[in-house]
């Protein structure tokens, strides 16, 4: 080939690389600028948060209160409500809320409607949730699945549908807390099922109501040190599930399996659980304050570097990875 032709080809390739690189840099700069733009009149906007007794919900309410929002905090217990009010400003108000009760949600909505008036409700953060019972699927009874689903799935759906008219009035935000375990089914029990359901419900809802100027955002936290990941309740539940098994099923796993399973859970929780809850609440805050909120927020380094990439892998890769971590039953094939 003529050297002149080779030179022209290389020059053309360099030009395309320069154009592509410039486009990528400009795209990143525009995205960062767009991502940084905040809404106006924060002090006039109301936000309702569920599950505020502790953990993410409690921290988020205090952050939003300092930010200037009028915060309406749904707490399960009187103690949780009183403790939150003691550390919050005058713009934060609490209401007792059990997301498994339609009547409780309806009462909370009527109370909220009276608070917000004609302004409507800028945001609902469906944060309330539970992780237990959690364990190998064969150890669960149907009611064990339902006890988690009625909080994490039915509660999110009920809260959203009952509060939706107030959100539409403000052309506001719905922020649903899912999990990385709504992307990778790594545990038995109702938790992963419920979080997959939250992901699906949120996607369907977003596509159905975007015409009304309502944004639906999904928060996908990794593993964090909260009551949901506390080891003592988890171990008590695993022992309860084991003890309700028939002797035949116990024998198929072997008498050492429970101890091995608990040790594995301790190892995972101690290795990956992050104590910095603000990594999650910062995502929630951005979803409420950004003029252009993201559809999904992955919170935590384990979410970004492990769980989310793993969710894009072929199923057999995930299966092999989990087999290497989980203990093997005695009478397995």
UniProtKB/TrEMBL annotation:
Keywords: Membrane, Oxidoreductase, Transmembrane, Transmembrane helix
GO molecular function: all-trans-retinol dehydrogenase (NAD+) activity
GO terms of biological process kind: retinoid metabolic process; steroid metabolic process
Record-annotated membrane-spanning stretches: 15-33
Keyword Transmembrane helix: yes
InterPro entries the record matches: NAD(P)-bd_dom_sf (IPR036291), Sc_DH/Rdtase_CS (IPR020904), SDR_fam (IPR002347)
A Pfam family of this chain: adh_short
Top-level taxon of origin: Eukaryota
Family: Belongs to the short-chain dehydrogenases/reductases (SDR) family.
Full protein name: Retinol dehydrogenase 5
Organism: Xyrichtys novacula (Pearly razorfish)
